[in-house]
User: What shape does this take?
Amino acid sequence: MIEIIPAIDIISGKCVRLCQGDYDRATTYGDPVEMAQRLADAGCRRLHLVDLDGAKAAHVVNYRVIEGIAKATPLVIDFGGGVKTDEDLHIALSSGASMVTAGSIAVKSPATVEKWVAEHGPDVVILGADARDGRIATQGWLEESTVEIVPFIARWMDKGLRQVISTDISVDGTLAGPSLNLYKRILQEVPSIHLIASGGVGSMADVEALDTIGVPQVIAGKAIYEGRITMKQLEKHNLQC
Assistant: This one.
C-alpha cells in the first residue's frame, strides 16, 4: 500500500504552503514543530521538510526547524531547500535530517551530487525532479531549464541514485489532483526508480489513484492542512500500512 508522506514547507520559521510555486501566494499554517507532532501522533513515520527560504537564498536557512522537529518527534526527516554545498549537507544531517533532496544542484553541479552519493549512499541522497511543462525547474521553482524530466531521472539512476521526488509544479498546491500521466510515464520509462509523487493531491481518492498505478509513496501537504485529508483518515491509512 502506498505510504503518505506529509510535507511541511518553511518560510521565516513558519509552516506554509505555496500555490503553483508562487511565493506571493503563500498560506501560513502556524508552528512547524506543533504540526509535526500532530502528524507523528497520527502515525506518520516520515516527513518531507522543505526550506523555502533556503531554496530562494541558495543555502540552508531554517536548520533550527529541523532540530526542533527531530527533538520533538520520531519522524524520519527528508530535507530539501538550499542544500548546495558540503557545508549545507552537513548542516542538514547534523541538525537531524536523515535524507536530503538534491534538486537544483543536480542540474547545476552534478559532480557535487555524485560525490555525495559516493560518500553517503543512495539511501541518504534523493533526487528532486520538479518540473513545469515537462522541464526541470530550479532555484525554488523560480527558474526553468531546458532539461526534460524523464531523461533527467534516467541519467541520475545510471549514476547511482534510487529515489526521486517528482513534483508537477503546475498542480502543486491546487488540490486539483496529481499528474497521473506524468507518473505513469516515469514508471514506464524508468521502472527501477523509487518514485515519490508530489503535487496536486486533494483527497484520499487521489492517493488511491496513485496507488493503483504503482506509485509507492506520495507527499501530501495542503490537503492535510485544509482538512481534505483529515487526521483521522491519515491515522487510518497509516494503521493499514
Q: What stands out?
A: Residues 19 and 173 are 4 Å apart (CA to CA). The first strand starts at residue 3 and ends at 11. The radius of gyration is 16 Å. The chain has a mean pLDDT of 91.
